Amino acid sequence: MLLDPNHLSALAAILRHGSFEAAASELSVTPSAISQRIKALEDRVGVSLIQRGTPCTGTPAGLRIAQHAADIGLLEAQLARELALDRDTGPARVRIAVNADSLETWFIDAMAQVDGVLFDLVVDDQDHSAEWLRRGEVSAAVTVGGQAVTGCDAHALGTLRYLPTASPGFIREWFAEGLTATTLQRAPSLTFNRKDNLQKAWILEHTGHRITPRSHFLPSTQAFVNAAVAGIGWGMNPENLARPALDDGRLCVIAPDAPLDVPLSWQVGRILAPALAPLTRAVRDAAARHLIRA
What we know:
The chain has about 290 residues and is an alpha/beta fold. The protein is built from twelve helices and eleven strands.
């Protein structure tokens, strides 16, 4: 099925900005023209693509078609480079799923190495980022482990090491009797969001018990470290992010020699792999400098 590029650009602009008016401004047309393009596209595919609201969001079909349009843009940009075509189509846009800890600690270094790309990052837990690839809603993702999503190339990146950390005062208050299943059950922990299982996984590995500890929810990587320093709770922090606070004594490792190592992979759609080769090189280079080698 051939889809009109003008219709696709209208859909992508609405999903980027959340409104027909903002999309019209980006594309230098009227909001009425945007509405007409979306209606024509919805008539063409036979399903609704936009959930009208503030902001406007995409239906599952709308998100998939918008990603298709972005993928076409990447392939066209690659073709223009290979054929040395003299045309200014602007930077290509790439949508990537990445976990918050990677974004905070090393992924921006990879982004900085790539020219001619506009990044659209979806931040999700590393255990769930592969689902974005399976649904066809991103072109690439940082995922856990090395099992490739069907239709994707997988590149092992290395290990992101997490340390169980807390402030000295918190340790004295909550773990005076030692680090046991009982004290871990009782002590307040820190959890990034409802998908974050790092604390539970470490407790199971360290004690052999499946425990759901009392928990604060803090959906911010830096706030996670700050909360541990403030004595609000204990949590699994990336070693390279927690290192300054560990070195100056504001944080301590509550169980020496008991890290939790999470292997990361870079997965990219096979059809898009040649177009994204410069980004893949940058991701692997940044990972090699920041992660523990597998």
